[in-house]
From TrEMBL:
Recorded superkingdom: Bacteria
InterPro entries the UniProt entry points to: DUF397 (IPR007278)
Residues annotated as domain DUF397: 10-60
The protein's name in its UniProt record: DUF397 domain-containing protein
Native organism: Haloechinothrix alba
Length: 60
């Protein structure tokens, strides 16, 4: 994972989240960006799409 600045993107949150107590995700060409909804300017993690999908499979 790398940390980088995020510009204008289509950020999404889970429909199960309440208020600002969640993470937001956005898709890029080969990565998924993740940030804290309470601090959207505080930095962004970039995770390869394959790694993100493996993470989601683990949660299910």
């Amino acid at each position: 994972m790398t940390v980088h600045e995020a510009g204008r993107r289509d950020w999404r949150t889970s429909s199960y989240s309440a208020g600002n107590d969640c993470v937001e995700v956005a898709r890029q060409a080969t990565d998924v960006l993740v940030r804290d909804s309470k601090n959207p300017r505080g930095g962004t993690l970039s995770v390869r799409t394959a790694g993100w999908l493996a993470f989601l499979r683990t949660l299910r």
